[in-house]
From TrEMBL:
Residues 38-93 form the Glycosyltransferase 2-like domain. InterPro entries: Glyco_trans_2-like, Nucleotide-diphossugar_trans. GO terms for molecular function: transferase activity. The keyword Transferase applies. It comes from the Archaea. It comes from Natronoarchaeum philippinense. It holds the Pfam family Glycos_transf_2. This is Glycosyltransferase involved in cell wall bisynthesis.
Length: 264
């Protein structure tokens, strides 16, 4: 296959050790197709969305892929994805099991699909989507949602090794900031994704349920109860009702002066 793929790696030495970047670059060099490597150093901490957009501007190939500096690719990652895209006609390919574009949009919206950014391969002839730099998190999810809506999505399994570390960008966001960022994501999704309205109530329910559980694990039982009550009002789900009851019990224990730390 003679196709050249531009590979964009955003890099900040604040979040990722240099040796991990070198290993990521080596996994690009080991690809079975020709690549053009674009490393965008974020020395001013403007964020991965900014760095990826700079990379998109620099890229001059039809196909563009993204790799985080702390992750690795399988040697045939790009070759398998290109083949799958040619077979399906999709303009976006990510890691995962086969599903419809509609199912992908729904699962990604409600948080049933995790980090896929280092698996993205994009056909820029089918979509000109960019990363939303105003989002503090989930900018990659919005990017994939818009790309999938524009050009469809296909999948390949077992193509990326994700290496999490304590100093990574995603590991530094506290729960309050995460909730604010998720609300921003909610608003932008409502504006840009046509299928969004079909899943709106489910996403809002999951948002409040998830942050209620986070507040519970932090020991903020009153806040947890507030989030979980809102989630229950949106949709009555056994897991949310159970979580609400547990937070109420823990709050009562705390008021009574009982140690509940070992049960959280």
């Amino acid at each position: 296959m003679n196709t050249t793929v531009s590979v964009i790696i955003p890099y900040s030495s604040t979040h990722t050790p240099k040796n991990m970047l070198l290993e990521a670059k080596e996994s690009v060099k080991q690809q079975s197709v020709q690549t053009e490597l674009i490393v965008v150093e974020d020395t001013d901490q403007r964020g991965p969305a900014w760095a990826r957009n700079v990379g998109l501007e620099r890229a001059d190939t039809r196909y563009v892929a993204f790799l985080d500096a702390d992750d690795l690719w399988e040697p045939d990652k790009l070759e398998r994805q290109l083949k799958r895209m040619h077979e399906t006609g999709a303009g976006l390919c990510v890691e995962g099991q086969q599903m419809t574009t509609g199912d992908f949009i729904q699962k990604l919206f409600v948080g049933q699909i995790g980090s896929l950014t280092p698996s993205i391969l994009l056909d820029t002839h089918q979509t000109d989507v960019q990363f939303e730099e105003s989002l503090q998190r989930r900018e990659d999810h919005l990017f994939m949602l818009e790309a999938a809506q524009d050009a469809g999505v296909c999948f390949c399994e077992d193509i990326v090794t994700v290496r999490k570390q304590e100093s990574g960008v995603s590991a530094t966001t506290d729960s309050s900031l995460r909730f604010e960022a998720d609300l921003h994501f909610l608003w932008l999704g409502w504006q840009r994704i046509s299928e969004y309205k079909l899943h709106f109530s489910e996403f809002v329910h999951q948002l409040y349920h998830r942050h209620g559980r986070l507040k519970h694990t932090e020991g903020n039982f009153r806040e947890a109860i507030s989030y979980l009550i809102i989630a229950t009002r949106i949709r009555v789900r056994p897991k949310t009702v159970a979580a609400l009851c547990i937070s109420v019990i823990f709050l009562l224990f705390k008021i009574l002066g009982l140690d509940v730390s070992k049960y959280k």
